Amino acid sequence: MLDLRRLRIFAAVAEGGSFTAAATALFLTQPAVSQQMAILEREVGVPLLVRVPRGIQLTEAGKLLADRAARLLTETAEIEDELRRFGQGTREVALGAFPTAGADMVPLAIREFRRRHPDVRVLLTPAHANDVVAQLHSSRIAVGLVWDYDFAPQATDPIFERVELLADPLQVVLPADHPAACEREIALRDLAEEPWIVRAHRPPYQQAFEHMCRIAGFEPRVAFRTDNYQSIQGLVAAGIGLGLAPRLSLTPRRPDVVPVPVAAPSFSRRIAALAVPGSNRPSTVDDLLDVLRTTADTLYRSPGE
Q1: pLDDT of 238-293, one tens digit each?
Q2: Does residue 302 carry a pLDDT above 50?
Q3: 179, 211, 204, 205: which is closest to 194 by C-alpha?
């Protein structure tokens, strides 16, 4: 008999393309994932995957199981949610969110969701945008927030519903005493000679900042890379360089830095919600999507709309 937990791990391996990606998505160790996959292959009696230099490839049997497992795990989550309604247990819906959404938009959305649906508990799970699809496939979450850049949009798995939420504009982060700190907006090319503190991204956006600067017409001088937007603010305040950050990532904002909107060509981070398929899914998913959409629309609509 197939073990449901191992199927969830297998689905994450299939989605992420490696044991390491699955371990990250499921908060497990890489050896634990490898061990569970070996047990699963013994149980089914056929090879499901082949190790390659940069991860794994599914065999034909593995592709079949990955497709069936995704549907089975979705159905299992739906059954569990429906059965809770017959008992006294609290109904739940799991939301995966990346950190800069969790700092502002997500808390406001959860507060509104609780106001509308006091009988439903929102389970908040950390989820890098690259890991959301794997967590949806493995049923760890029912809704996940993802983002991409408008100048290089990324395709998402069509099996999941995608709801566009908002365009999060990138802003130049300046020291409070910088000559341009009082400007209403500033073009990146006007700052071409400045050193920059750059947000380090996972693929496919390792060179996103350089790409934006080339669109603006110059090659940037990168002084430092960091994986934390709060570090960007601190380094900017210390005079190490200027930063470029999405508006949502500047919550909370230091008093000794000033964000200034970017003049054309400007850039945005597009934020969307991915959800398990609509057919027969729990009503809590639709309720959460509605609240996320409303929160984004009322709190983050562009000026003048």
Answers
A1: 999 999 999 989 988 899 999 999 999 999 999 999 998 876 678 899 999 999 99
A2: no
A3: 179
Looking at residue 24, its amino acid is T
Q: Where are the domains of the chain?
A: 1-89, 170-267
Q: What is the mean pLDDT of the chain?
A: 88
More confident residue, 303 or 23: 23
Rounded to an integer, what is the distance from CA 305 to the centroid of its chain?
A: 26
Measure Cα distances from 185 to 34, 87, 173, 174, 193 in Å: 51, 56, 11, 12, 18
- The predicted pLDDT at position 75 comes to 79
Identify the pLDDT of residue 37: 93
Choices 3.40.50.920, 1.10.10.10, 2.40.10.10, 1.20.810.10: CATH for 1-89? 1.10.10.10
> What span, in angstroms and rounded, lies between the C-alpha atoms of 269 and 262?
13
Close Cβ partners of 267 (under 8 Å, ≥ 6 residues apart): 149, 150, 151, 169, 170, 212, 215
- Distances in whole angstroms, Cα of residue 189 to Cα of each of 53, 96, 213, 271: 41, 36, 7, 26
Global confidence as pTM = 0.69
Please state, in angstroms and rounded to a whole number, the distance separating the CA atoms of residues 301 and 176. Answer: 26
The structure tokens listed for 52 are 């390659």
What is the spatial distance between Cα 68 and Cα 11, in angstroms, rounded to a whole number? 10
CATH architecture for residues 170-267: 3-Layer(aba) Sandwich (3.40)
